[in-house]
Structures are given as structure tokens and as C-alpha cells.
Give the backbone structure.
Amino acid sequence: MKRELAPDAVERILAQARAGQPPDALLQPLLDQGWEQGEATAAVESVVREWLDSHARDSGLPPSVPVPSPIDLNGASVLQVGDREVSVLASMLLPRVIVFGGLLSHDECDELVSMSRPKLKRSTILDPESGGDEVHVDRTSAGTFFPRGGNALCERIEARIATLLDWPLENGEAIQVMRYGPGAEYRPHHDYFDPAWAGSAGPLKRGGQRVGSLVMYLNTPRRGGATTFPEASFEVAAVKGNAVFFSYDRPHTMTRTLHAGAPVIEGEKWIATKWLRERRHD
């Protein structure tokens, strides 16, 4: 028989979710009452989702869309992902952020850096009006990209990501590799395409909206370079081989996925980013 949450439990979950509490804090009272891990997780996620959807309806926004979600995450600290074991280091429900350990081997990180170094060009952002690429002071990295399936290494990494996040491989954009030198940063921004921007029309025709981001760290800077989530007061250190994933089920600030690449203070930072779309991206 399916358990029902008491009204006071619903209010507690919502209060903690609004405060950015991690999933364990939301789940623990239910587990203490004898709930199974799976049913407790489903109940908490249902409450949070209904709350977000009600806010979306009140704001005239479209309903949520499916987003990538890691396989078998319920209570797991280690996931078997094809050819690798990947650790779950941290997990949040709102915003939906998960930190993975050991997604890439050190050899894979070094190879991506080596292949990318000769191809680097100044990174750009989407021009909100024209939809073209523009160099901007908010993003001071240099980067390059590798088409999906463009080489054996990327093909292997892309297959691993598709398995980990249970998301079609063809819905992924090209892997982008970026280098941040001393002082380089990416100021707070969202990864989705703002529907209010005229320049979003072009990208949206190729696979629909972005619904998830995976940032993979290819080295460990001496100091600085963390990925920060200002609205959640959460910071992910850039550690070689690790990755941070976050999803956003609608292009709106209510997802609390505002994030930034903090300035590199000493050394350099290399990352590989994989953005995931609603549909096939060509």
C-alpha cells in the first residue's frame, strides 16, 4: 500500500528544499519513520516537482520537460557505468546538482588536453539579438570542440555519459574543451537558451532546449577555478577526473541553476563540457 505524506511533512520538505538542503536532509525524517529508500525518494521528488510546477503555472510558464537523470542513484555511492566505476560525491535536489568522482581517467583527461591545445581559440557566447557568436568580457577562456563521435576517445566518453545520465547519445552537443589561464573566468550565467531572446531561435531549431550540463575537470588548478552555484551557496572544486552535472527542466530562473566558473587564481584550469538537449542535436 502506497504511503501518503502528512501535511506537516510536505511543509517540512518544501521549507528545506527552498533553503537548498541536500536530498539526505529531506529524506532522513522519512527513513527514520521506516520508509524504504526508494519510496522516500519518490515522495520527496514528487513534492518538490509539484511545487515547481505550481510556480510555473502561476507565472504562465510551460510545464516541466523530461531531463537527464543518473542511473540507479537512490542511495548509491558508486555507480557502474560501462567500463568505469563512478563515485557519487554530492547530490542536491534544488537545484538538481550531482558531483561525480572519477568519471574520466587521468589518461583520458591528459589526452583531451593534448588534442585540444593546438586548436584553442577565444571562447564566445550567444549574442541575444543576432544568435551569432560573440567574444564577451564575461567569458575569458579559450576553447575548441570535437564533433560527436569525431574520434575514439570522445566516442567512448560520450557513450559513458549517455549511460550515466540515461539520456540518448544523439541528444548531446559536441564536447567542448576549454582552458582558463590565470584570472580567466566565466561569470554567472544560465546554460539554457532564453526564449525571450531573438537570438535563441536558431539554436532551438537544432535539438530543442538545453536540459542538462556536465562539466568534466581535466586537471586540478593550484588555486581557484571552482564551479559555483550562487543561489544555492554551493561550490564544486575543480579536481582532475571529477565532474559536476546539473539539470534544468524549463528555461527559467526558478531552476536555480545560475552558475559560474570562478577565476583561476594560480595555475590553469582545463574542462570539457557536454550540453544535453531535449531532442536529437545535429
